[in-house]
Amino acid sequence: MKIAVIGFRRDEAKLKDIASWIGGEIFFWSKNIFKEVWGGEGIVALMPTGIIIRAIAPLIESKWTDTPVVAIDKNMMYSIPLLGGHHGANEMALKLSEFGLIPVITTSMEFYEGLSVGIGCNKGVSKEEILDALKNGLDEIGKGLKDVRVIATTDLKKDERGLIEAVDQLKKPLIFLRKEEINSMDVKESKARLIGLKSVSDACALYFGEELMLPKKAYGGVTIAIAR
């Protein structure tokens, strides 16, 4: 499903402009409209945040799977990620900034310096394996977990419980990158080409960094790359 652009019929002209710019599909407000479009690529809603929050509250389950939601104020001045900032909402808000809206982004990743860690892992990896690999990789460059700003991997790992549990424990942002995002990076191809990706660890680290401090290194069933 395309990004759902939700609003009132009286704002149809504005909704058409938004949908055209972001590549979305218009849906007019009804009691169950958020439930009907939930689970799609994302939601952009031109309406008061109070209405949006009350509508999505019963639908929220997990920060890893919830649909990204962005609110736009009635004067079309601001785009505000309300849910799923690290999983599409911030990106939608930034896309809307090209349309003239001011993005109001509050997630911590956008405000602090630090390292970007790219992770690849075997299926069924444990939380402990991820944590040990992270520590070993950081030790290699004389850094610690406190220095990490963001951890990134392929969206093929969205259901990898060991990875999710490890990053949850660390209280760091975990970003799942799409194939086209990973393959846009200028990196040497790896065995990941077998699953249609140029690379996992190196590309994911560099997506939020500028220079590799630790090129991809394997620690058991986990690969780590670190960029600054």
UniProtKB/TrEMBL annotation:
It comes from the Archaea. Residues 34-109 form the Cobalamin synthesis G N-terminal domain. Residues 115-227 form the CobE/GbiG C-terminal domain. GO terms for biological process: cobalamin biosynthetic process. InterPro entries: CbiG_hydrolase, CbiG_N, CobE/GbiG_C, CobE/GbiG_C_sf, GbiG_N_sf. This is Cobalamin biosynthesis protein. It comes from Candidatus Methanolliviera hydrocarbonicum.
